[in-house]
Amino acid sequence: TQSTWASSAKRVFAVFALSSLDVSGLFASQCALRSFGAKYAVQLLSPLLFVGVVIAMGLGLALAQRALNAFADLTVPPLRRVAPRVFFLAAPLAYLPLCRSTLALFACTRVGRRRFLNADLAVECFGPQWLGLLPLAALGLALYVVGIPGLIAWRLLRNRRRLYTDRKVALKYGSLYRLFRSARWATPLALMGRRLSLVAVTLFMAQQRSLLVGALLLLVGGGGALQAWMAPYFHPVYNRAEGALAFALSLLVLCGVMESAGIGSASASGSDSRFVEVLLFAGFALLLGSAAVFLIYDVRAVTAEHRSARRGVATQNPQRVL
């Protein structure tokens, strides 16, 4: 937990908590969100609300284009064409925090003869408040935990013979697989499975430190080694960035092991605490650097391909149909 980390480490965790859709980092739970149920509902329903707003905006713009002559020269892509592209681009990114938010209701801690939620010890598992949130959790399981990978697997399997040859398929689903070699088109599904495993391990093994550390090292280190051996990415720089990412995550796991042993906690000696803080910041820096490599290289590749397309020159990457 973060309760025993040094203050500088807590500030780093607070920044990165925003990427997990943790609304407790944005609101004071005792003021804006008074109960665990309210926070849980916001975390699970806010993506659906966002989708509804986007659909409403798309429909409104389409109706405005038809109704007003002033928009006659404005070409708005149909919503049925844009929506799949946006969904298959955003869904893999949001999958991990959505799974964590959904499964948090099932992570309980035994206190005496009773069980309480790890996220809020004031909520008793299988109690009235917990049972009241169970339908919402079932909705999250169906839509997020199972629905997102199920829909992606269905669309990829159905179009697997046309993924790298059909431009229409690539425009709709290309954000899922365009970085991977044709023999590794199913890699996005494996990555989502690993993210779900990480969420399950951190939630359900939180009270068993030795099992937690072993499972994390297996998923992070072993998964990174397997991915490096398979080299799924078309560009070698992405495979190297994935290796750096796995090493960064292993550093963070090591920091967690040392913190659980009392090294690097707020009560530890100055030299031990500084050593763990250096490792922690190095891990986060390497994590951000790996993500930056992905982003910068991809933007440069897309820009180069667009310039080549304008000049009528064929792209050097036959698999990048987009």
Summarize the structure.
Helix 2 runs antiparallel to helix 3 (79-103), helix 2 crosses helix 4 (128-158) and helix 3 (79-103) runs parallel beside helix 5 (167-177). This protein has a two-stranded antiparallel sheet.
SSE layout and pairing:
Blueprint: H1 7-17, H2 36-67, H3 79-103, E1 108-111, E2 114-117, H4 128-158, H5 167-177, H6 187-204, H7 209-230, H8 236-260, H9 270-311
Antiparallel strand pairs: 1-2
Tell me what you see in this structure.
There is one protein chain. Mean pLDDT is 75; it is low at 1-9, 11-30 and 313-322. Helix 3 packs parallel to helix 5. With 322 residues, the chain is mostly helical. A hairpin with a 2-residue loop joins strand 1 (108-111) and strand 2. It is globular, with a radius of gyration of 23 Å. The protein has helices spanning 7-17, 36-67, 79-103, 128-158, 167-177, 187-204, 209-230, 236-260, 270-311, and strands at residues 108-111, 114-117. It has a two-stranded antiparallel ribbon.
